[in-house]
Amino acid sequence: MSKTLQRLSWGWNLPNHRVLAIKAYKKLDRDKGRARFCLTIRVLSFILVGMSVARKTSKGKATRLRDPERTRERLLRAAFREFYRSGFQGASLDTILAGAGVTKGALYHHFDSKEALGYAVVDEIIAPDVRAQWLRPLQRRDDPIDALIGIVKRISVRPPDVRGGCPLNNLAQEMSPLDAGFRKRLATIFHAWRQAVASVLREGQTHGSIRRDIEPDDAAGLLIAMVEGYGSLAKNAQDPRVMKAGIRNIADWLGSLRPPGNRRRG
To answer: Minimal CB count within 10 Å: which of 53, 127, 167, 201?
Structure first.
């Protein structure tokens, strides 16, 4: 190989680069300046295109990895699943991280502690779920009893849901005696639930669709107690039939809140 070709090929190990050097060398016999110009353009074009692709790929990857809101949402969802399966105290942070697909550094970037993560699950997942299941349907009702019976009949009796129990009640039973942060947050959810039910019962009394001898706040508390009580019985029995029986009994009780002569079986 001539010195000219050696000089052009030096330091390049990739086959494509070497081919470019050889082509340029052949042109040197005719016009060295032109060959050098061609070589420079071709090699630079190759390198710059590669760099451009690499930058685009790297930028896209960075966007996916550094989306803080999506990372936080994945952590919350993974934590909710783990709390539901294992309880808060038994929940494994490693399992949560694996489920979310993030690092421990990402976890502590968003949440100072396991407790902070638990509080966020209550505020941002459990509370909205209760609002969606109980409060919003009551805002679109024509008859409060029909609305409440409809909500009760939509309670899930799927075996996995029965075996796992109510997420709100699970955390209340486990953490309310142990942690004031959990207790206050869970109490807020129960209070909003009770107030929403009591409000529609009270309004129903003014329209004559609810018996006037009942106390709306007490009836709302009893409804919640029956829903969560039957949920606990079904979870303990690991039997959806227990929850199905509970739903029938609760619907019948709700029907009894209508004035005499206006009752129909739930």
So the answer is: 53
